[in-house]
């Protein structure tokens, strides 16, 4: 009977008693037989492992292994990790961080994006870079939660990251932790009559900040001709906040379609009446760092013909994770659904193609494979949706000629020009500044759209 004890413990951890399967002949030969196998392995490890292991550690490791085998985003949080997540660094005046959004790809720790204004951004850390060690301690066997814990520490304390940039040798970068105040929305006027809005992520305050930013720009310039919404290097965030951000610019139509495990479990999220921009043209900037909920916003604006997307292909992740507490034993983060664009265009593993592909003029080449997207991650959810028929870009009949890619490709070792690949490049200039080449081209596109819109309203 002893070997059934861990089995019952595992079941209690994974589900409340009311949700446990009933003991019938049909499942005794299936699930319970496999759980019995787990119980046997558990007992052999307890009794024969050369070093003793606590029972709770074995159970936690088993759950971690189950979730790690599903996809890159499902994971187990111990009780301490779960409590730490409920009390993020922003709520602790004595705890700082470096402001990195990370993922694990084939056992390697990769940068999705640094947060705007963070120590990591100031240190020049860019999407796609591989981190090998934190304070010279290897990270290959750590979970994302464990990595995040190591990156946290007292404000102004120093942390070093050993990482590789491009094809160069690993380098050590030192920075000081800070109490990063996440600013999801920033804005300013461009050339006096174009509103620039930087959406760096989504949290509970994003909707109010976005509304305030648009209204402030409209007050500053009575002759606004349109808006540039910058979604580059936006790693996502709160799902509901992203839906609200898309809804802010869409008068009517769908924002996204959420699909669960069952084919009949489909939910369409519709926009509510009202458009913050009052119908003015919008250009949205995207790139390979535009991920998750940021792709929801980009897809909604594109499919509803509300914005022209300019830049490079997005990251390609549309999974929705649910945090499920386990009766005082931590929690599991489980991928339970994914979303598509309103026209059912798949995002998972594919990304969103911009209407106008514009690469940065200044390119920093990354080594082959370093700028991987969701489809490249180990265990990534596969997209089984059929590919919809190609559609013309929004306003294709009226929009100005395609903006040519003026980038000058770097030369190879033999002196011949190398072909630029927007999938493997990142801008070297700061986003939203005078050196931001993609923004400059977006402004040109917006001026053309505004001119066409003005003619059509005469």
Percent of sequence in beta strands = 15-25%
CATH topology of the largest domain: 2-enoyl-CoA Hydratase, Chain A, domain 1
**H and E order:** HHHHEHEEEHEEHEEEEEHEHEEEHEEEEH
End-to-end Cα distance: 84 Å
Summarize model confidence as the mean pLDDT: 79
Structural class label: alpha+beta
Q: What's the CATH architecture of the largest domain?
A: Alpha-Beta Complex
Work out the helicity level.
Answer: 25-40%
Tell me what you see in this structure.
- Residues 1-26, 362-372 and 390-429 have low confidence and may be disordered.
- The protein is an alpha+beta fold.
- It folds into 3 domains: 4-53, no CATH class; 88-176, PDZ domain (Pdz3 Domain); 185-323 and 334-383 and 392-456, 2-enoyl-CoA Hydratase, Chain A, domain 1, CATH 3.90.226.
- The radius of gyration is 24 Å and the shape is globular.
- The protein has helices at residues 4-14, 25-28, 31-48, 55-68, 79-86, 119-122, 144-151, 206-220, 239-247, 293-303, 437-456; strands at residues 75-77, 95-96, 100-105, 108-114, 130-134, 137-138, 153-154, 158-164, 171-176, 185-190, 194-199, 226-230, 254-259, 266-270, 282-286, 308-311, 319-325, 331-340, 356-357.
- It is built from 11 helices and 19 strands.
- Strands 3, 4, 5, 6, 8 and 9 form a 6-stranded antiparallel beta sheet that branches.
